[in-house]
Amino acid sequence: MSNETQANSARNESNTGDRLVRAGVIVFFVGALATLVTVAPLFLHTSPFPPIAYAVCMLMGVGFLIAGAGVVTSVRTQRRAQSAAG
Predict the structure, then answer these.
(1) Residue 24 class from Cβ within 10 Å (0-12 exposed, 13-18 middle, 19+ buried)?
(2) CB 73 within 8 Å of CB 17
(3) Residue 58 carries which DSSP code?
(4) Are 73 and 20 in contact, with CB atoms under 8 Å apart?
């Protein structure tokens, strides 16, 4: 019974890591798209966007951190499962 509980717990934590990675990728791409949109007026010689548009570009870094946290969570979960099994 104890092994089943540990396996289910490890599976749920692994899913949490996977979800964090997916969410991080989505946030990263939203920030990348915002960066492309924000930089476009510089090349098109139009008026620049307001400063809040530049703040949205920071989502690239936030997404990268979220995805990194998901990877770390997955690694820790796998190590815990290996040490419990062996």
Answers:
(1) buried
(2) yes
(3) T
(4) yes
Residue 33 CA to chain centroid, in angstroms?
16
Q: Which regions of the chain are under pLDDT 50?
A: none
**CB atoms closer than 10 angstroms to residue 52:** 7
SS (H, E, C) the chain: CHHHHHHHHHHHHHHHHHHHHHHHHHHHHHHHHHHHHHHHHHHHCCCCCCHHHHHHCCHHHHHHHHHHHHHHHHHHHHHHHHHHHC
pLDDT of residue 85: 84
pLDDT at 15: 87
What is the pLDDT, as a whole number, of residue 49? 87
